[in-house]
Structure formats: C-alpha cells, structure tokens
Design a protein that fits this description.
This protein has 92 residues and is mainly alpha-helical. The protein has three helices and two strands. The protein has helices at residues 3-12, 19-40, 71-75, and strands at residues 81-82, 85-86. It has a two-stranded antiparallel sheet with strand order 1-2. Strand 1 and strand 2 form a beta hairpin. Helix 1 (3-12) crosses helix 2 (19-40). The radius of gyration is 27 Å and the shape is flat. It starts with a helix and ends in a 6-residue tail after the last strand.
Length: 92
C-alpha cells in the first residue's frame, strides 16, 4: 500500500486527508491487506462451501403448526387498538 493508493481511496470516498492521516492510513491499510493475504494462505480445500456457517448442522427447529395467540392477549400491550386490530400512524 502506497501513499498514492491511500490518496486514491480517499478520493473515491470523497475524504480529505492530511499528510499525517495519509501516512497513518498507509501503514494501517498495509497491515490489513497483509493480514488478508495471510488468511488467503489457509488451506480450505477440504472445507465444503456453505451459504451459512452452521448450514451443515440443523440449528433451526422444525416448523410445526401451533394454535394462534388469543387476539385479546396479543392486543393487551398495544399502545392503541380498536375493532380487534393494532392501530398505527399513517405512513405515506
């Protein structure tokens, strides 16, 4: 990571950086990218791709039908209700 790289990223993000900031971010971003390269070196060939880290395990309960909550109980703590419904402000 060079000073020019940091200035270019700052320009894309529409940030104004002082020379001290450029020097600081050059070191910090360089460290971050070095760490990312280190992570990329890990052998993941034996790891199956997943859409969720816990997809292989069934962490979710089965969806089983159950009785609905009683309407009066559902509306008991509503700040405003009427005709058996929740009343909410209009949003347009």
């Amino acid at each position: 990571m060079t000073d020019a790289d940091v200035r270019r990223v700052a320009e894309l993000a529409r940030l104004t950086l002082s020379p001290d900031d450029v020097a600081l971010f050059t070191v910090q971003l360089g460290s971050i990218l070095a760490y990312a390269d280190q992570i990329n070196e890990a052998d993941t060939s034996a790891v199956a791709p997943t859409s969720h880290p816990l997809a292989a395990e069934s962490t979710f309960r089965d969806d089983e039908p159950r009785p609905c909550m009683d309407r009066e109980r559902a509306l008991a703590n509503a700040p405003d209700s009427g005709a058996g419904l929740f009343k909410v402000p209009k949003v347009l």
